[in-house]
Design goal:
28% helix, alpha+beta, 233 residues
Length: 233
Amino acid sequence: MRFPGMEGEDAVQVGWRIYRRNSESPHRLFVYNANRTQAEAVMGVDMIYVNEHARSVATVQYKRMRQSGRSWVYWHDGTGERELKRMEAVDDKCRAEEESTRTNHQRSGALGDPRLVTTPSMVKLCRTVPFMMNSAALISGMYLTREHFWELLQRPGAGGPSGGTRIVEHSVPRYLNNTTFTTLLRDGWIGTRGTSSDYVIDLIRESLSAKGPGSVVVGMHRSEVPPGNRRVN
């Protein structure tokens, strides 16, 4: 696995790799291949990102679009619906944590640490094309919040000509591309905060402690340099 403009090396801990722009760079991305399916079973996601500096967590479920004539189409099925429900449950719990913080007037840095999106669950629609694991390019696709993804499935045009529910690539009016998503993630503008971050991290730890085959990738961004667009006293 590679990240644009970053070099990878094995960490001391087994299973971890460290990515950085150069040997002197304070910006580091820690990636761990957990070899578990429990995190996906519990949370309905494929990728988990933890930004340690911003104390935020974002999760992504990848959805494949298949070519149909000249269009690329994602077909929503029972498996996708179950994954969406698990993601919704996590998001609802995070909202409850946020509301509890506000209601109880708890002293929390979360109240002064705004997010554009405070829930963790996102979806990435990707074309089904060959992908080389040693490629420096990220998989091209469209990042959507879970709510935005759900709204697209509810549109009148989502019905297929022979039944079923679909999302056609060219019908998606707005989305985050790779650059926008990674920038917002790095700078702590998307993902959980406060006690909702604690909840998701505890959920990840619990799910990864279970035994089982498969693979879930956990990415952790660490840096001695504060995220962009953040005032430093």
